[in-house]
Amino acid sequence: xxxxxxxxxxxxxxxxxxxxxxxxxxxxxxxxxxxxxxxxxxxxxxxxxxxxxxxxxxxxxxxxxxxxxxxxxxxxxxxxxxxxxxxxxxxxxxxxxxxxxxxxxxxxxxxxxxxxxxxxxxxxxxxxxxxxxxxxxxxxxxxxxxxxxxxxxxxxxxxxxxxxxxxxxxxxxxxxxxxxxxxxxxxxxxxx
Amino acid sequence: xxxxxxxxxxxxxxxxxxxxxxxxxxxxxxxxxxxxxxxxxxxxxxxxxxxxxxxxxxxxxxxxxxxxxxxxxxxxxxxxxxxxxxxxxxxxxxxxxxxxxxxxxxxxxxxxxxxxxxxxxxxxxxxxxxxxxxxxxxxxxxxxxxxxxxxxxxxxxxxxxxxxxxxxxxxxxxxxxxxxxxxx
Lengths: 192, 184
Prior knowledge:
Order of helices and strands of chain A: HHHHHEHHEHH
Oligomer: heterodimer
Strand content of chain B: under 5%
Strand content of chain A: 5-15%
Largest sheet of chain B: none
Structural class of chain A: mainly alpha
CATH class of the largest domain in chain B: Mainly Alpha
Helix content of chain A: 40-55%
Number of strands of chain A: 2
Radius of gyration of chain B: 18 Å
Shape of chain A: elongated
Number of strands of chain B: 0
Low-confidence stretches of chain A: 102-148, 166-192
Low-confidence stretches of chain B: 1-6, 102-112
Mean pLDDT of chain A: 64
Number of domains of chain A: 2
Number of helices of chain A: 9
Strand order of the largest sheet of chain A: 1-2
Largest sheet of chain A: 2 strands, antiparallel
Helix content of chain B: over 70%
Shape of chain B: globular
Mean pLDDT of chain B: 82
Number of helices of chain B: 9
């Protein structure tokens, strides 16, 4: 059996066999097939191959179905874990709490816990997705830091900013690796 | 319980999943009926041996157990193939740890299909089966998905964990090898 030199059409023959071509593509392939003995022979071979491949060892469908348990809604344990982690960050400062400091004020020694956490969270994200980091969510000239003031000392704006920062930490574990990994550009195919 | 899925042959996979999540266990049965044969063929193409049915069952149990991770970005069948493939690889690794010789060699596959040969009355079919058996594992996997299941290169790439371009190359290499084997 010889190969037709038209690789594009040969590439489409399995899709033709399974009726997965657009009507336009199908007409193109049919037009080629009408004058090409090699492609007709290849399509016939593919049809016979499909028939052979679709012979399946028997499996007990009822037994498989019976093994499937009823649906259970997912727990929110992972959310709870991250909320707990955020709480630990607050407690880690002892009775001290977070304050917002202007960038032009040097952080005190030992006041870097939340800053580090925020930067760590930022580093876990794919490059270019900085919108979810605590540091980038805070107003530009400011950053989160552990300080000596009590939560009750924060005004409404500062408290909102702090909570927004913690909320973005929750978003980190939900970053879907599978979605972010598949970034390689698709190969141009010209087929289905 | 919601409406009967046994009447729902026109329902999409996602419709059936929604019904199952709503408490209709028959929707799960319908999905198994719809996809079990294809998953079985795929598992067999991976060179799985006596544990085919176990792998197929485990595939469905795991798929339904983590159905909330299925977002419909690929077809349910492609997702099932991906799970089945991982299971076969896991079985192979655990067999290897036990010291068993589990590489997918031609001899293994031929042994597997000896039994099947008994029901293949047609000699031509046996020759075609033998030709497929002689492909490399990756070529066979891609060829079965392309020709047996009619999947696109994109779907094959998603199932096998490769690129569309690589899947295309494997398919054409497989096709060339099969023609040569059948011409011998």
